[in-house]
Amino acid sequence: MQTAIIFDMDGTLFQTNLILESALKQTFEYLRENGLWSGDTPIEQYRQIMGVPLNVVWETLCPNHSNEVREQSNDHFQLALIEQIQRGHGALYPDVLPTLQKLSEHYPLYIASNGQTAYLQAIVAQYRLDRWIKGIYSIDCIDTNNKSSLGKHIMEEQQINSGYVVGDR
Questions:
Q1: What is the rounded CA–CA span in Å between residue 86 and residue 94?
Q2: pLDDT in tens, the chain (169 residues)
Q3: Residues 7, 112 contacting (CB under 8 angstroms)
């Protein structure tokens, strides 16, 4: 058994706000081009719900759309986010790298996020966080959309008996 630190990604380690608006605009432009949306991109509405599981995001932003269209929207959004990350348009918060390095000398470090796996992996790869992060866990690796359940899953899988959770909420 061990003591560990579990970090949230968005708004804690990664400045998601730097890429979010652009990716959301790309997604709603895609919907407009395909006759699935008219009007402005609902950026303010998204800001109000930021941090909720992605299925809730698309149910909220596209309440009159089918689940198939919501899934297509999410897929497009994820690709747009990853593209922004790979182009270097995102950023970690100041001092994240030296902080992770120092903490990793004393604790195993993990990420637990509502973000999807490919998105999280893109951030980890872009900033070489795998030097210090022992595991990356997305909400999509468990059956519920509950972050507490994700934390419990990590604790069981990694045999963590105590530790800290670091997030922006």
A1: 19
A2: 689 999 999 999 999 999 999 999 999 999 999 999 999 999 999 988 887 888 889 999 999 999 999 999 999 999 999 999 999 999 999 999 999 999 999 999 999 998 999 999 999 999 999 999 999 999 888 888 788 899 999 999 999 999 999 998 7
A3: yes
- How many angstroms separate the CA atoms of 129 and 162, rounded? 23
How far apart are alpha carbons 163 and 108 in whole angstroms?
10
CA distance 91 to 16: 8
Residue 76 amino acid letter: H
Longest alpha-carbon distance in the chain: 54
Full-model pTM? 0.92
